[in-house]
Specification:
Layout (H helix, E strand, L loop, with lengths): L1 H30 L2 H12 L3 H22 L2 H5 L1 H17 L7 H28 L4 H31 L6 H18 L16 H6 L4 H27 L7 H8 L1 H19 L5 H22 L1 H15 L2 H11 L6 H31 L3 H25 L3 H10 L9
Helix pairs in contact: 1-6, 1-7, 1-8, 2-3, 3-6, 3-16, 5-6, 5-8, 6-16, 7-12, 7-15, 10-12, 10-14, 10-15, 10-16, 10-17, 12-14, 13-14, 13-17, 15-16, 16-17
Pfam family, one: MFS_1
Membrane topology: Multi-pass membrane protein
Organism: Hirschia litorea
């Protein structure tokens, strides 16, 4: 009987993992295709750069607001319910892209889809903790989840290009996403989710989420993630602009043409590789080593210029890959599982806010101090990676979260689960 229960639990966790991977793949497919969408929409709709940039920041700002404002919902009504509501809202908003060709319609739908992403993503992140058996297992599973996100980030832009080549609108990408959402909702309805203790309704509130800002673990990991995200987004938003006018050998020109795609591929490969690395090495020195390499890649690109950036910035994706899911999982693991939705939402706020603000700051400094030369923007991005390295150095030397993670292994991951 015990063996049957164990097998049933294992099968349920496998299906839940697959659904979580699919969710991350699906929304990455749309959010990380924004560069290709902007290029087409600008031409088709006669948009300015400022207007077109809303296709990116509207979603990111909405995700940030949803993360901090709705992250506690997964703790209050349950992971499954929050995921179903979020996927339903995302499916509706995505299907509505086929209803017209208005810039303002797209803006509203992108904002609504961002709110939906924030809701089901925080629930999914909390769910990863529910099915993990230790903080180490949590981190490895988070790397695998983000690996599927990386695959979606590759497939999405390719689909937009394929649709354009076939004479179809980029909005079909969102209709495909809506269809995937419906399939995932049906699968989730018939999947048994793990038992967990639902947070007290007086605790699962926006006020409680905001109170986590006073917690050193929530704030520290969130700040580190913000520095990482600002550097990562710099590459797929501004690297093509940085490389405009680049001339070199045939291999170098090929790298320049596919620089962002190479970055995405290496990032996806690195996240699956990260899950393996963390089974054999402690996360703290790995983060320190990788952040040092990333800093060197950005510094060399900013100082030497395009001849170095064409190789170094795409290469940094391999070493960036495991930093976000590792920091994210460790930050969440420092808290009781009843708080995982709230803290995941708070970290998501810093993630999305940094993804929106970082590129804007790079553009500003490039215009103000470089006459539009994006190399100045990448000097700022180098600063982001420098701060990340210093935080990793501090974490390696002083291990500020080690006690909280050790206690979580005993109190949160040691038990088989509690009834709702």
């Amino acid at each position: 009987m015990l063996n049957n229960n164990t097998q049933e639990k294992s099968a349920s966790h496998t299906l839940i993992s697959a659904l979580t991977y699919a969710m991350f793949f699906m929304f990455a497919m749309t959010t990380d295709a924004v560069g290709e969408i902007i290029k087409i929409a600008k031409s088709d709709m006669g948009l300015t750069n400022t207007q077109a940039s809303a296709f990116h920041w509207s979603t990111m700002i909405a995700i940030a607001l949803s993360g901090v404002g709705l992250g506690f919902v997964a703790d209050r009504i349950g992971r499954k319910n929050a995921i179903l509501i979020g996927l339903g809202a995302y499916a509706f908003a995505s299907a509505m892209f086929m209803m017209g060709e208005s810039f303002y319609l797209y803006f509203v739908l992108l904002f609504v889809s961002g709110l939906a992403i924030g809701l089901f993503k925080t629930a999914a992140l909390a769910l990863i903790g529910d099915i993990s058996t230790s903080t180490e297992h949590h981190t490895a599973k988070m790397n695998a989840v983000e690996g599927f996100f990386g695959i979606g980030a590759i497939i999405g832009p390719m689909l937009v290009v394929a649709l354009a080549s076939a004479g179809l609108s980029w909005t079909w990408l969102y209709l495909i996403a809506a269809g995937l959402c419906v399939v995932m909702m049906l699968a989730a309805l018939f999947t048994k989710y793990p038992d967990y203790k639902i947070a007290d309704k007086n605790k699962a509130t926006l006020g409680h989420t905001l109170s986590l800002l006073k917690n050193k673990y929530a704030l520290g990991f969130s700040f580190g993630i913000a520095m990482y995200v600002a550097a990562e987004v710099a590459i797929f938003v501004w690297l093509p602009t940085f490389l405009v006018g680049f001339e070199g050998s045939k291999p170098a020109m090929w790298f320049a043409a596919y620089a962002v795609m190479i970055f995405f591929v290496l990032r996806a490969v690195g996240r699956f590789l990260g899950a393996w690395i963390l089974q054999h090495f402690d996360w703290k020195p790995v983060i320190l080593c990788f952040s040092a390499i990333i800093f060197c890649c950005f510094l060399g690109s900013a100082i030497i210029g395009k001849n170095a950036a064409v190789y170094l910035l795409p290469l940094s994706g391999l070493f960036m890959s495991m930093i976000y899911p590792t920091l994210n999982s460790k930050g969440i693991s420092c808290f009781p599982k009843t708080d995982h939705g709230a803290v995941a939402g708070l970290i998501l706020f810093f993630t999305a806010a940094s993804a929106a603000i970082g590129p804007i700051l790079m553009a500003f400094v490039s215009d103000q101090f470089g006459g539009g030369d994006m190399r100045i923007g990448f000097l700022l991005a180098t600063g982001f990676t420098g701060v990340l390295f210093l935080l990793a150095l501090y974490n390696w030397k002083y291990q500020p979260a080690e006690r909280a993670l050790s206690e979580a292994n005993e109190t949160e991951y040691g038990a088989e689960g509690v009834a709702t």
